Amino acid sequence: MTGEEFRLAAAVADVYGELRLEAVLRRLLQHCAWLTDSAAGSISLIDAAAGHYTKAAEHGALCRLGDRFPLDEGATGRAYGSRRPVVIPEYGQLRAGHLAGGDPVRHRSAAAVPIWWRGDVIAVSVTFAPRAGFFSTRELDELEALTQTAAAAIVRTGADRPDPVPVPATPFTGPFTGRETDVLELLRQGLTYREIATRLRLSPKTVEKHVGAIMRKTGASNRTTAVVTALDNGWLPAGLGNSPHTAIG
Prior knowledge:
The chain has a six-stranded antiparallel β-sheet with strand order 3-2-1-6-5-4, with helices on both faces. It is of the alpha+beta class. It has helices at 8-15, 21-36, 74-82, 137-149, 151-156, 178-188, 193-200, 204-218, 223-232, and strands spanning 41-47, 52-59, 68-70, 86-88, 110-117, 120-128. Keywords: DNA-binding, Transcription, Transcription regulation.
């Protein structure tokens, strides 16, 4: 990551700025590239019922845009099958990769990150490393946080299902305490437990307790699913940024 510090809230606001599929995916790719200093990437939409995925957007590399592939093929298939972010050490060694043989990106590593909605993987974002080597754990965490925030935008464009996703018309309410809402909002922004503790002036153990309560109330097994469940149910404010309860030092 180079230049000005990456700001997740600003990136998400930009992704949601125009709810057309092409615009959403293009902006998501741009922010993934900016986050990792990468020059190439792609996004595929998953059709689990039909058993295939479609290359829906690309940036900096020719990934056979618009073509369909089986769900067990390529970097997208690897992430879909694993149900978690995966790193391909060298894309050119991947079985049934979709880049042209002469593309220099083939010799780089690639991070494939699934995008979840209501318990299903609806898309996979693939980002190619800007240089030889691997993505760091932090880069993977940040990519996961960024790409997952786009799930609702993808659904609202109609890419995932024909029926529109309702937007809550009532003021924000939810099952969380004010402090749990603070923690959940910072989880949405991609902060680690230690960073949340520092931001809210709490101990890491207290943050863990709040996260545990959030998991119980959402029925989630991980932080990403907890955030998605809260967004899906309207339990987080629609606007990004700090909640009214948050005390920032």
